[in-house]
Task: inverse folding
């Protein structure tokens, strides 16, 4: 059977995103979310939203790009202990053992902070940083240590949404798709994970049609596909209110599931 998880990233980034995720979960569309612990909306997520939707599957959305650096490590920060990194910067430093150790320490602190407020059953990262092989390895090892059984993989099959690919900014997403697919082939899969991903190629363009066309593009049976949405974006937010998406997903041959169904 083909199975699909719709995960909302950036839970905890701000109050508006938190409310959108709660609404999408209550509407039966979002089946999981990933918690970012070092941004302004974390306390609202942990103290107000999670108690209102206690059954939602929550993962850690590991973040070394922005927000507070919990470890205060100067290898990861700019000024005032604020994280200041980019994907390229992290990639270029990913063979440096000291840098990877700093990432490991920050990951442990962020995970421990999340676990003080909720159970964590999956793990991924802000700006897909854990696709980089040395970081994927560290995250896998720590996930096993904390008995987290699922980690996001980045295999996304290319497909066409005609009204999106003509945007002059779209080629950037194609480059991201190629890079992440290449890293995914290198990463050793030691935990449960998705077979396919939808949401990187059309980042910034995600809507109901992008999801449905992406699912129709997956021909393999017995697959788990993870769909990523970011409800602070208008088009992504509209997905959380769609009256038709559940039925349309079923028509593609997929069953909507939660992480706990496979973990």
Result:
């Amino acid at each position: 059977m083909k199975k699909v998880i719709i995960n909302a990233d950036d839970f905890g980034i701000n109050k508006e995103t938190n409310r959108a995720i709660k609404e999408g979960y209550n509407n039966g569309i979002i089946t999981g979310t990933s918690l970012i612990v070092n941004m302004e909306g974390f306390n609202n997520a942990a103290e107000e939203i999670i108690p209102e939707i206690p059954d939602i599957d929550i993962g850690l959305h590991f973040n070394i790009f922005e927000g507070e650096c919990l470890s205060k490590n100067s290898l990861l920060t700019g000024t005032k202990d604020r994280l200041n990194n980019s994907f390229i910067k992290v990639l270029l430093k990913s063979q440096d053992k000291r840098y990877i150790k700093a990432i490991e320490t920050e990951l442990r602190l962020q995970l421990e902070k999340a676990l003080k407020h909720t159970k964590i059953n999956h793990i991924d990262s802000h700006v897909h940083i854990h696709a980089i092989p040395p970081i994927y390895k560290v995250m896998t090892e720590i996930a096993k240590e904390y008995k987290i059984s699922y980690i996001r993989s980045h295999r996304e099959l290319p497909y066409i949404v005609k009204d999106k690919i003509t945007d002059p900014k779209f080629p950037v997403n194609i480059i991201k798709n190629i890079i992440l697919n290449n890293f995914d082939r290198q990463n050793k899969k030691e935990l449960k994970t998705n077979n396919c991903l939808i949401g990187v190629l059309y980042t910034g363009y995600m809507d109901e049609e992008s999801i449905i066309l992406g699912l129709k593009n997956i021909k393999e049976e017995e697959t788990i596909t993870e769909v990523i949405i970011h409800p602070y974006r208008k088009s992504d937010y509209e997905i959380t209110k769609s009256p038709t998406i559940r039925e349309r997903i079923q028509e593609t041959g997929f069953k909507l599931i939660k992480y706990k169904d496979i973990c």
User: Anything to note?
Assistant: The chain has one domain: 2-261. The longest strand covers residues 2-11. The chain has ten helices and seven strands. The mean pLDDT is 96.
